[in-house]
Amino acid sequence: MSSFSGTTNGQADAGLQLAPVGNDGPDHALLSKTFSNTLANLQGFFDQCEENFNTRYALWSGQSADGKKHAREGSKIDPTPWDGASDLQVFLTDEAIIKKVAMLSMAFRRAGISATPVEGNDIKRAKTVANFMRWMVQTQIPEVSREVKLLANFIQEQGIGAMGTFWEETQEKILTTVTLEQLQAQSPEADLTTALYSTEGEDQLVEIFVGLYECSRAKAKKMLAELRKSQTTTVPTLGRKKSRPVLRAFNLNQNLFIPAESTDPENCSAMFRVEYYTAEQLRGFVNTSNWDEAWVEAAITTCRGQLITNTQNEYNQPMGRSFTFQSNQFTNLIGVVFAYQRLSDEDGNAGIYLTVFNPKMGPDGSHDGYAKTGLLGYAHGQYPFTIFRREHLSRKLHDSRGIPEPGKPLQQQIKVHKDSLIDNASMQIMPPLMYPQGRPPLRWGAGARIAERRPGEYHFGTTPSYSPSTEASYKELKSDFNGYLGFATSSSDPTYTPLITQDEADEFLIGWNKVYLQCWQLFKQFGKEETYYRVVGLKQVDPVEFRKGEEDEQFDFVLRFSVDSMSPDQTFAKLEQIAKIVATGDREGMVNYSEWLQVMVNAIDPTIAEMILDPKEVGQQRASGDMQDMLTKVYSGIDQDLTPGTPPDLALSVIQNYIQGDPTVQAKMQNPQDPFGKRIEKLMKQAEFQKVQQNNAKIGRMGAV
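The structure assignment produced for this chain is given below.
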């Protein structure tokens, strides 16, 4: 058991008690109190999140499913202006959030990634690391696209969200058919054949199978029955081991809670993660994560179906949301709290300590009140959560507004305008019918015949006039809101719109810089020494070998995205300007034209780039193969011309190696009667001419040096 105190390292957020851990483990009562105090201090944030949620999805008390106003059951107050009047849902803020999420998702997908060595100047290694990280995140973390969208939704709706970065090592069990002979070879000390058909030996075989395959006794008995019947059975064996980073977006109103006074994520005194598991999952953690078995069984017995928190949005049904989680759906689940604390041991060694517990289940005679406790074990020494904010209004992390907060008044005003337009149209289509008292018409509607005793007994009442300015008014309100959020409108500032969008994308990707860094650090700590990968965006015949490198090797990662790439016209204009600079300014031969070609095609369409562009090595191999085929035809007496676009230096090199490597070819070259030599000389002259043309073009671009 680790021995450490409750002292914090550095500046912790004030006003919060830590749960110290002694020789006997953490103080369960103090840790539970710290957790409950954290939730209590966040109540204002929870209330605002609920309001933002209801604003986004246009939910309110007494809402009808048909979008019309009706009298509430048991209420004596009639709806205003009448029963059946419009009560329309307006999704102004939801529309804005959807657009922002789409923009941020695209920024992440299309962002360029670069790695910079913290020490040293190994630029080539840095580029390799960047390519490897792009491959790992995009191909080895299948959940990344979903989690990016979830994170973006949390940020835009609530103003804040978090991305958790963890390392996962799993090895799935697969069923394999084995024979009695194969089982005997695995257990040579036991006579399986004799024991299989004897009553006394069954218990022995059950114990052997349970130990050998880590299965239940029921499964072991089933295997025995199959062996007796057919001499074969299916056994659980370990399949391919998965070792990779795992990314998960966290909602700070549902499953991740940080102190309300927090200003710096890394200086938080504690972070609390809440999860719900089945009994089977908890029992699995005993073997996979070293959870205390006595605690697990006690939790299954005493905490099944109990919600850990009472926050408004934690799996409770929000107003009008029939498809969201309800508490009765958690009848068979057990709540667990993961408490992450920055603490130091008695020698002053700081680290992130993890305690797994349930605040409603204290220690008893069978367990100490927690499932697991000790150092988290991540060498980077950081919390495994990156906090993302939509705004920076103060130093407090929670002081950031979601889009529904400024959008709610405008959304309500637009709703008033739209309801009035619909109600006015209803009055125009079916105005009130005036009739003599006590003589209502038997029928009413289009084509109805109503008898009059005296002219004018039945007539339509006066309806309010329609003002076109009403519709124009709500359209102007929507335009103002979109302009405020940085969306392009007819009246928005053309310089302001891209500025806001670029700032939002940059802020989002800054958080991802830390996520990538933690993924890299976890890979350095737990990943394989050698990994084979493919460069994302390029076709490769063979994967590239990647080695972790030196243990102290460190990199910083930067993700960049230009909003100009969202506009084809702006993209083409920028590429044209860069091309002019490259053409006239590359006096020292600094430009990598292969990379420049990739950049140009990727900027237009990454999918097309992947289809038509090959790695440089593959292109050279293909060109070399084409030259070899051409020389074979020349040797056979077929005249050939150098293919346009063939690298002239490569062509000359292949021809020279071809001549020098074959005495027969040399003899044909020296025979003046054989046209072979002239054909070879023609190809060499064509290559020399192309080389001169390329040099002339370069000199023409740069001028004489």
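Interim note for the steering committee: Residues 1-22, 312-325, 701-705 have pLDDT under 50 and may be disordered. The two ends are 72 Å apart (CA to CA).
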